[in-house]
Amino acid sequence: MPFPKQFHFYRVRSTAARYGIAVAGVGAATALALALSDGNIRGTPFIPFILLISWYGGWGPGLLAAVLSVLSLNYFIIEPRLSFGLVTVRDAWYLATFSMSSLFVAWITGRQRQAQDDLRRQASLLDLSHDAVFVRDMNDRITYWNRGAEERYGWRRDEALGRSSHELLQTVFPLPIAEIAAELHQSGRWEGQLTHTKRDGSRVVVASRWSQQRNEDGTPVSVLETNNDITEQLRAADAWRESQAELARVARLTTLGEITASMAHEINQPLAAVVMNANACRRWLEAAPPNVAEAVEAARRIVADGERAGQVIARVRSLVRKQSPEPSPLNVNDIIQDTLAFTRVELEQHRVAVRAALAVDLPPVLCDRVQLQQVLVNLILNGIDAMNATEPPSRLLTIESRRGDTHVNVAVSDQGKGFDPAIADRMFQAFFSTKAAGLGMGLSVSRSIIEQYGGRIWAEANSASGATLRFTLPAGSA
Fold first, then answer.
1. pLDDT digits (tens, 9 = 90+) for 454-478
2. Quick one: 309 and 362 in the same domain?
3. Which structural domain, as residue segments, surrounds residue 30?
4. Domain match, 350 and 473 both
5. Among residues 23, 148, 160, 466, which one has the fewest Cβ atoms lying within 10 Å of its Cβ?
């Protein structure tokens, strides 16, 4: 696509001006040399003009100025004047030396000017970035401050240059600065999250990337720091985690509603035993003579049953209460046994047999006890519901645990009607349920919990009938 006419005019006019200045500059140098009328200086006035023309005009005008200076020097200054002839060998050597010197001055000055222009263009590109970019020397003094840094932190470029970046921004480091400096010196790079204070006093969290610049002999000379504001992303992530935690608590409350009978039975059994043993203790004490040994034994059983009832209530409270997860090394088999005890009445009421195939060499997993129990309760209740249409003799729920290379694997299998493989992925989406009165939250929350601890959960259709829900958790306590 052709350039607009005004662009061509601007380029031609600019080029003509630069070369015109070269001609005018050589003319001024010639006039100065003639005015001085000193045979010893001869070409000296031309050098500063060549330098200035090369700097402001570039390599082309500088070269033209050098050539014109040589011609002017030969014609106007060196004897015989107003002629291009040379009388002595000394003059010839002088003119040759001056020619090489002027060409070298024009070339080196033009190159420096071009390099500076390239740096300026690169710096202008950095100003287009929305990230805060600045350069600091090895004394932490800011030497470059882009427009993104001005917008992000509030300090203008002239206010930031020369100041210590860490003092200006009141940097809060995730590690001791000595450790960060050691990594930067060793690898030449460092990445991490920093907290900075803006000019208005507000704080921002940035994803910071540092690159160390070195000179030819490998000595560090500066650090390029690029900062991307992630404050809002972190707030959104915190809000998402809070909503997920609240959603999990609501799901636990829903689950408790489904196993109310189990809870009542679990609490009623030790309470009934407390009453029975209390009556027995009273009878032993009222006997003549009192049977103190039997009374003490009955009192011991009262204490044990009371503690058992307290444990049941504590489990219920742990599922209901609103608190942050507390990951700890857990034995998956212990959680499975506790969950089976918690859901025993549900299993008995629906006449579901349970087969537990638990490996004995399981390593611990790092997880929150209540959350892992919540996952297992959801999977067990799903398995019970899936076998409602199955005849009682065939209602078998199998729970397996085994050790993988790096994970602990758990599977809950039922002998129910199964599911359409086409909906295997949708089963773990929020509010998706195949139950008529289901909320569709149990499996969704279970997936969030398992993935939170680096695991994975999925569903498989059994070859004969029913379905298997599997999940894995990383092995190890760290």
1. 999 888 888 878 889 999 999 875 4
2. no
3. 5-126
4. yes
5. 23
